[in-house]
Amino acid sequence: MPQEFEIKFIKIDKNQVREKCKSIGLVCATEEFLMVRKTFHPKTTEKNEWFRIRQESDKITMTYKCIHNDSIDGVEEHEIIVDDFDAAAQILEKTGLKNTSTQENYREIWKNDAIEICIDTWPGLLPYIEIEGKNQEIVKKYVEKMWYDFHDWLFGGSEVVYEKELGIDPKILISLPEITFKNPPKIL
Question: Whose CA is closest to 22, among 127, 111, 95?
């Protein structure tokens, strides 16, 4: 099972994170850009799983994600690059998946050969970072290098950040048909 080794830290200062990234030798691989995605869910499932099509800064990806548990290695992810956002969305709909949401966020990517740190800004939230590496040890090493306390982490998708900051239940959040800067989720 391809695993994603990722951890989040919320309520960050973008400029402080940029300075920390520079100080530990990371380079800004992609300046801040607007990312747009459509999510698709199976009509019936017992799993916390979904598909998405995402327009990134330089490519379009189609991804399957399944959160098996809330841990650094609890997310299964399979991803391919596609060349047409709308055609990929139509293919997923033709398989019987339901287009459940259109979402956008801003992302900036810092990296080296071992790690990728994304500065994310979602509608209605304070900026947060994702630290992703090839294994748990690398992620933990860079958490320490970034001077974060490993116990202040969050695992999972953006829904866990919305729950922590705005009190929105993840089940409600994933049912929202649109999460955009013009239509951000509201505090409950």
Answer: 111
